[in-house]
Amino acid sequence: MNKENKDIFNNLLLKKILVRILLAIFIFVLSALILANKVPEMQWVESAIERLDESKNKIMELSGSTIAMSLAISALPDDFATPLADTLMDMNRYFILIFAVIFIEKLIVVEGIRISFLYIIPTSCISYILSVISKKDVFLKFAAKMLILGISVIVVIPFSTYVAEDVGASYLTYVDETIVEAEAGADKITEIMDTDNGETTIFEKLSDAFKIAAKGMSDLLKYFENIVKKCANSIAIMLVTTCIIPIMVLVFFRWLLKELFSFHLALPNVKIRVPQRKAEKNSDSE
Fold first, then answer.
1. CA 140, CA 116: separation in Å to the nearest integer?
2. Binning pLDDT at 50, 70 and 90, where does residue 7 land?
3. Of 22, 163, 168, 229, which has the most beta carbons under 10 Å away?
4. Which tens digits make up the pLDDT trace of 78-102?
5. Higher model confidence: residue 59 or residue 170?
């Protein structure tokens, strides 16, 4: 390749490098100065926050109803249902776990999206620019990982709230019914214990209040065991909708983005060929 062709080749290569650098700078500026302020205020982000607040309130209601039911059962005479009351009280550790997960998810939505646009994606752009200048794969791989992380933070939690709402809509109705039943049961037991006139036994009063054929201790235990099972099922539903689904969405997005970026990174480098002039070919042949 003669000097003129080398100059053309170098100019084309330089333009290609400049385009890549300018594109990275544009994404940097767009992410840090515009999207970091605009995206957190968008409707789909606010909707995700509202759904997380609804889940938090539901957990607090379920926790309060189980505590109230546990205290009411433990107040019954002869301690015949104390083990069930203890079981209900022990469920609060799961409520704390779910509440903590919801808090973390909300923190990611509120602050994580802004941090992603403000720091993570710009860091990816800087690393990409370094890879273009230095031609080292280590910077390119780091840029891809940071970009995957940034996109995951922006998309996963809001998207998982939509999935949880669609998938668990009917099951969350079951949770609401359990909350109402547990709260009503606790109120009935408390009312019965406060109106003890000595004319009827505690089993007769409970049988009339709950409209069950409670002829003795075993029938009442079965009724309370059913409430405990419903509370346990409600906890499982909340664990799936608030913990398992976000994890599954995160794993899916991580796999999807990794595959997409791996595909692009695996593309062969395009070589720039500069055609020689016919006159030069003729002179070379002579």
1. 18
2. low
3. 168
4. 666 677 778 888 888 888 889 899 9
5. 59
56: left (phi over 0), alpha (psi -120 to 50) or beta: alpha
Percent helix, strand and coil across the chain, each to the nearest 5: 85, 0, 15
Lowest model confidence (mean pLDDT) among 2-11, 161-170, 252-261:
2-11
DSSP states of 42-100: SHHHHHHHHHHHHHHHHHHHHHHHHHHHHHHHHTSGGGTTHHHHHHHHHTHHHHHHHHH
169-194 vs 137-167: helix crossing angle, rounded to 10: 60
- With contact defined as beta carbons under 8 Å apart, do 148 and 254 qualify? yes
Residues 275 and 89: their CA atoms lie apart, in Å, by: 81
For CA atoms 53, 57, 58, 62, the dihedral sign is positive
Picking from 97, 126, 112, 115, the residue whose alpha carbon sits closest to that of residue 244 is 97
Task: State the Cα–Cα distance between residues 213 and 192, nearest whole angstrom.
Answer: 17
- Taking the CA atoms of 194, 196, 197 and 200 in sequence, report the sign of the dihedral they define: positive
**pTM for this model (two decimals):** 0.72
Burial class (CB in 10 A: 0-12, 13-18, 19+), 237: buried
Distance between CA 122 and CA 117 in Å, rounded?
7
Tokens of 39: 């995206």
